[in-house]
Amino acid sequence: MPMDHFLRARVPEWEKRYVKDKAAKAHMSESEFLRYAAFDKQVTVIEGVDELLTELRYQGNNLNQLTVMARQGRIELVNMEPFMEVYERIWQTLNSLLSHVV
Fold this sequence. Notes:
Blueprint: H1 13-25, H2 30-38, H3 49-71, H4 81-101
């Protein structure tokens, strides 16, 4: 649906900063944040998720490199225990973060 209409509102400086900060914490644009608020949609910000996603990317890169090396025949066996420990720790952290939201 095209968004070709504008809503304008005058607000004090502190309200503008407040909306801008809340939108940034939610990784949303100010417009998107205000649309969610206007339609009573819940915006949930989970602190610590950025670090968790970074770790998952690192682990995904490691697994991808191992897969490439295995297909090239450069490796035959991999000790998966360290990977499983990291994934278990990430899973526990994610569950812990999500339990604080609900």
